[in-house]
Amino acid sequence: MRFDALHYRYPSQRTLVYGTHGMVATSTPLAAQAGLQILREGGNAIDAAVAAAAALTVTEPTSNGIGGDAFALFSYNGKLYGLNGSGCSPALLTPCLLKEKGLDKMPAHGWLPVTVPGIPGSWAALVNRFGLLPLSQALAPAVEIAREGYPVSPVTSRFWERAVKRYREILKGEEFSPWFSHFAPLGRGPYPGEIWSSPDMAETLTLIGETDARAFYEGPLGEAIEDYAIKTGGVLRLSDLAAFTPQWVDPLSVEYKGKKIWELPPNGQGMAALMALNILKELPETSYDSAEYIHYSIEAMKLAFSDCMAYLADPASMPISPENLLSEGYAAERARLIGNKALSPFPGKPPGNGTVYLATADKEGNMVSYIQSNYMGFGSGIVIPGTGISLQNRGHGFTLEEGHPNSLEPGKRPYHTIIPAFLTETDDTPLGPFGVMGGFMQPQGHLQVASALIEGHHNPQEAIDKPRWQWHHAKKITCEATFDPATLEKLKEMGHDMVKDPDGFFGRGAMILKTEEGSLCGATDHRADGTVAAW
Asked: Concatenated DSSP letters for 182-244?
């Protein structure tokens, strides 16, 4: 692909970044530099992705941690691979246990929504199969940042302070004390530029690196997790951790206007983006950026989400196959429901059968789309004393509705929001990784960024900077403050409950694509503190 210079159609302080030998694009500068350091030390794009990911657990703990989950979608020697690094629910976590505690839905905080963390095992699986360096070397930059400390960036500082204020109100049990002592020892979040360090995280990352993550799943770190769970009422056990294995999966794709967009299969929600694109291409042609085009995009996204919420789950529990949900016939059937007015979405009947993102590339042509998260910012609020391990709350993604594909069961993966994406030519020639982090905004961000690239003919930075909309429920849509007022009014006339939200969260993205000249072109989001580190 060829990209023109930025025309500043949308508000941004960033411009395109080019490189040849390697590139890392992510949401904090120090994490991007950690990945670039590993490239310079002889690592490839996979090693660099793990290095940047580990650094992000330190430099952006507001969005991810060592105790979270990860997914990767990457090109290695020209072939696409997928890794599902999400963990299962503990063996002792049952619907009966929640009913005994008087709960009729999954809680968001505490031990009950904690599932087995997949990040450490995913790091080890990636570098052991595809990397050039040992895991200890890939994690070394993150260890150094954690031990010596770093100046906290502005956006991270803002989310950190919000979390402290919120957790002070809602986290009342003794099990949450280590979170406050680790992340808010002064009773507040760190100011922008203030130095924050974590010797505990440095030691934990060192152990993970030296043991290829075995210390986390069957050694001293896992034992510390089990001990604290038993002490404070949790059900996660060392046997749950020891049973974890990341899954290698085959990515899914749809063709859209001369390109292919790739996502990972369930239990992640990448299917929503692919289904929406499938529906969108069945609708009448309209000029890109018109109110009609945005209307069609919103309606397609609604229908895709409705199906995903009804059918998407751990693959072993899904009543409908991803292939059937992505069939052209089903897309055409759903597209026929869309007219000139906003509709309230509902699932169809197909034929039977918080978060950080980074992208890396190296001079050999390997490229990685990688995402990891604790969910809802810091996650469960549980920090294992003396380790800096902040545990995720992905179990909140389960439903307690009996018979639902995504209902809670022991040893099951929940519906997952974090999704990496990849763009190729129709013959599967890799073009590059992209992603938009942010809960249920993610597939909506993928749809908007992909269509901006392919139909809007925007360069990567323009595609990321473009003002976004987000569907919430029924006909409720929010959009960014810079959204075109005339388009906003026309969408309202079409029946959308459209509201500008200056303080809303519309995701944060990054992208690396190959150019026709053979160079690398990178972009990061002005909504984050990120940067593109190029070589």
From this structure: HH-TTSSPPPTT-EE--HHHHHHHHHHHHTTTHHHHHSHHHHHHHHHHHHHT----HHHHHT-
Contact 71, 371 (CB under 8 A): yes
Q: Cα separations (Å) of 525 from 216, 356, 381, 452, 506?
A: 33, 12, 27, 15, 11
pLDDT at residue 344 in the model:
87
Helices and strands: H and E segment counts in the chain: 18, 21
Q: How far apart are CA 509 and CA 25, in angstroms?
A: 9
Structure tokens at 178: 């280590």
Which amino acid is it at 291? A
Asked if residues 419 and 483 have their Cβ atoms less than 8 Å apart, the reply is: no
pLDDT exceeds 80 at position 2? no
Tokens representing residue 22 in the block? 């390697």
Question: What pLDDT score does 353 carry?
Answer: 42
Question: Predicted confidence band at 9 (pLDDT cuts at 50, 70, 90)?
Answer: low
Does residue 387 have an active-site annotation?
Answer: no
Distances (CA, A) of 38 to 125, 133, 170, 333, 523: 17, 9, 40, 49, 20
- Contacts of residue 270, Cβ cutoff 8 Å, sequence gap at least 6: 252, 263, 264, 419, 420, 421, 443, 446
* Cα 351 to Cα 301, 316, 329, distances in angstroms: 20, 17, 9
- Distance of alpha carbon 169 from alpha carbon 191, whole angstroms: 20
- Whether 139 and 202 have beta carbons less than 8 Å apart is answered as no
379: nearest Cα among 365, 361, 397: 397
Exactly one of 26, 115, 206, 355 is catalytic; which is it?
355
Q: pTM for the complete prediction? A: 0.95
d(CA 64, CA 397): 16
Confidence category of residue 289, pLDDT binned at 50, 70, 90: confident
Q: For 88, which DSSP code?
A: P
